[in-house]
Amino acid sequence: MTGDELVRIHVRDDQDVFAMRKLGREVAESVGLEAQDQIRVATALSEIGREFVEAGIDVSVSFRLERDALLVAVDFSAKTDFRPSDGVTLAGRLVDRIEFDPVEGRISMVKRLPQGRKPRLSAEEIRARIADSAPTTALDELRRQNRELAETLEEVLQLNTELQETNQGVLALYNQLSEELEETNRGVVALYAELDEKSAQLRAASDAKNRFWATVSHELRTPLNSIIGLVRLLVGPGGDPLAAEQLHQVNLIGSSAETLLSLVSELLDMAKAEAGRLDPQPSMVDLVALAERLRMTLRPTTGNDGVTLTVEVSQAPPEMLVDEVMLTRILRNLLSNGLKFTEHGEVKLEVSLEAATHDLVFTVTDTGIGVPEEHLERVFEEFFQVPGPIQVRSKGTGLGLPYARRLAEALGGALHLASVAGSGTTATLRLPYRHDGAPVVGRVLIVDDDEEFRATVRRMLTGFAAYIDEASDGLRALEMMEENPPDIALVDLLMPRLDGTALMLRMSDERLRDVPVIVVTVATSRQVPERAHMMISKQTLRRDILLEAIGSALGTADE
């Protein structure tokens, strides 16, 4: 042991144990230990001393002072074959560290001073103070221990009173928080009810708007067709000849009527698209013939010899299963836009098969004026047109691109634009490639409480899955699985009644335990459930990502 020795005492009997206890208390007080720590040191010495006295072994106890600790050494003869028992064990609980060395014949104890506190007295002052202290008897020491016990009991009673007061305060706070939480819950329930009501109103307004457009568009078509028919009778063969000015005016009427009819048709189609009533009718389509027809049809309408229109289908399959009318309308719209806003250069349609996603990619590029980056998504809003001099000169309604994107989604694909202002535009249409109508997967179950999202995923899976089932919560999903087990399930985590995590835990019987699960959710910050194959964010979900994930889950990604 290191440090200056303060005092040493020999212990042979019970009287020495009392003296050692008193001495240990005084030394602990002198070096700066708190009252409770003084009692702990004294008690530890008393327990060890009694154990040696009962064993009939004489010991020498020395006290030393280090910079931040009191060191106590209990030395005995190694030949006594002393084995520590309960007294040493109890002492070890009262000090910071205790070590028993039977070879050296020593028990070492350490009691650290409070952090940052230095000894009150020097080693010489402590020795002098201990030397001046009066000797004590067993009765005196017993009285002192009783006083310490009474003081400790008083402190315990006081702590118990404080604890009861704290418990009362905690209980009152708990009751207050419970009341506030209940009030908040009532507010949340009321807010949800209000949101449901507003959602119903918005859906009703949207339905009313769609019915209005459909009705107005339909009612306008009849008189417009009549006007166009009468104009053709007037200017066609068999009618009375018209003067040059009359012929010009009648042709203007016919042209305006045809423009208005085109606008009305687009409005009607947009209403159908928003109402989800665009039902594709797939058939085998000759892509080469389709591209050539578009080239021949649109080339005479350019009115500009400085622009060439080319098509290239050499890298694509010759046929695919798709709704020909919808595909033609999308491509005609993209090519018309390219020709309209390109004054010099080329507009080109390329068709190719992307092996990684098994998508047929239609790319329309032009060398026109381009679209500023801040307007790349706004051009897909109804009636929006990019401001500029060419747009002012060109006739347009701002419905073509929104309609084209809705058609692409109805076909299970996606339409995107990439452009730099002044450097042309690239429009990319991705569609699932099917050449024989055979789906890749048999049955897919979509489990999500969002009806619109389920409709979006259903469109993405069109032609890819033979059967597509939908469930609005986990309980309904379990019922459907029992009737027709799916080949794969797309599951949201946040749902009423039974959420996605609970649903996966209940998919444990023989028929469902091997069904792959892909989690599609907004709660991507959560850990991927162990039962799930992978997790996909709703915000970034695209058809190619979804199909690749399904292929990976089914083990067909590389097929």
TrEMBL record:
Keywords: ATP-binding, Coiled coil, Kinase, Nucleotide-binding, Phosphoprotein, Transferase, Two-component regulatory system
Enzyme Commission number(s): 2.7.13.3
Main location: membrane
Domain Response regulatory: 443-558
Subcellular compartments: Cell membrane
Family annotation (InterPro entries): CheY-like_superfamily (IPR011006), HATPase_C_sf (IPR036890), HATPase_dom (IPR003594), His_kinase_dom (IPR005467), HisK_dim/P_dom (IPR003661), HisK_dim/P_sf (IPR036097), Sig_transdc_His_kin-like_C (IPR004358), Sig_transdc_resp-reg_receiver (IPR001789)
Domain of life the protein comes from: Bacteria
Coiled-coil regions, chain positions: 139-194
Domain annotation Histidine kinase: ranges: 215-435
Catalytic activity entry: ATP + protein L-histidine = ADP + protein N-phospho-L-histidine
Enzyme class: transferase
4-aspartylphosphate modified-residue sites: 492
Single GO term (MF): ATP binding
Coiled coil as UniProt keyword: yes
Alphabetized PANTHER family for the sequence: OSMOSENSING HISTIDINE PROTEIN KINASE SLN1 (PTHR43047:SF72), TWO-COMPONENT HISTIDINE PROTEIN KINASE (PTHR43047)
Name under which the protein is recorded: histidine kinase
UniProt source species: Streptosporangium vulgare
